[in-house]
Amino acid sequence: MAKAKATFTQEDDELLAELGVDVEVESKGTHTPRQARIIAGFEEIEAFYEKNDRMPQHGEGSDIFERIYATRLEAIAASQECRDVLVGLDKHALLDKVAVSVAELSADIDDEALLAELGVDVPKEGGLTNLTHVKSTAEKKAAEEIGSRTLCADFDKFKPLFAKVKDEIKEGVRKTLRFKEDASINQGEYFILNGQIAYIDQVGELTEDAFGKWDGRLRIIFDNGAESNILLRSLQKALYKDDAGRRLTNPNAGPLFDDQVDDTDHESGTIYVLRSKSEQPEIKANVNVLHKIGVTGGDVDRRIANAKLDPTFLMADVEVIATYDLYNINRTKLENLLHRFFDGARLDVQITDRFGNPVVPREWFLVPIFIIDEVVEKIKEGTLANYRYDPKEAKLINS
């Protein structure tokens, strides 16, 4: 394989196009079309420098455009022809700042490596001799943007999903991770793109191209009621490019606490399950399955000492049915997780406090104690995300 040339010839037009120099740029003033292309490509690098106050860099931490600018700048600096064209136009002295790496570039990077650094796919076999057509920058951008956004006709069935996901983010049940940490995209996953939550409803048939990469059409639903059929790899690129692009984790609490306690563990609190001693008919009729589920960092007995004066406890005394000690756990997140999991069995009742004000308690659920025991075990195992509670059947369903 030939080494990258230090100067450009007419045969390098396709390579210049891959460097981001638009082959369609018109000649300006006394510049030839070729000179105008070089200037236009360099101006994009200058715009990056002015916006970010730094040189474009290589590496996985940089998006594809920054890596293109970095390679383009080194290639321009290695070309005496380009340097001559840019005399008087390099207002930030970028060519001098990158000069240290020019010798390494021209000596060590061949044509194929240079194209790979730019993100240009090189076929597994045959190398550059089989590269019959190199797409222009305009063609590449058009290909990436193929996939229309339209109004989602069945958005009503997705709207509750987005509402739930937003609550899970607020409660800390779901976390947001930089997309660059994991570039996979699968059906049923959620992402944040350009400030909108995106749900992967469908992944079409994936096909492997000549470069060994898989791609296919997606059906993406956005929380603003739109949908798109963008390509999988185009979505990956968009998420990479978006500095705020994020992946949402699954709502799995993980192993929140263990059966055994060692010297390094710190007690964090207690899950408590209470039964009401209220004489109100609707409370008394369900006394065997109606439980208050809460988490406290203090003493449970002290927490319930004045229950009959507190509408949270249904303005009645209570008895402790079960407790579970917690270690190394965020109490608020765990309580939110439990309440969300049993939301379908939440008691809908209004209580009047001792000042005559109406209060709606939110921590009472029509759930048998054996189900609560089972849920605690699932949390300890880190498998609760695989289940849901069916209030009608009073059992956990593997989802």
Mean pLDDT value: 76
Specify the helix fraction band.
25-40%
Number of helices: 14
State the major sheet: 7 strands, antiparallel
> Runs with pLDDT <50, length 5+?
1-12, 20-28, 100-146
Round the Cα radius of gyration to an integer and report it.
31 Å
Q: What is the domain total for the residues?
A: 3
- Assembly form of the protein: single chain
Q: Count the strands?
A: 17
Amino- and carboxy-terminal Cα gap: 55 Å
How are strands sequenced across the largest beta sheet? 1-8-7-4-3-9-2
* Category from helices, strands and their pairing: alpha+beta
Shape assignment: elongated
Provide structural commentary.
This protein is of the alpha+beta class. It has three domains: 10-142, no CATH class; 146-248, no CATH class; 267-398, no CATH class. The chain is built from 14 helices and 17 strands. The strands form five sheets. The chain has a seven-stranded antiparallel β-sheet with strand order 1-8-7-4-3-9-2, with helices on one face. A hairpin with a 4-residue loop joins strand 16 and strand 17 (395-398).
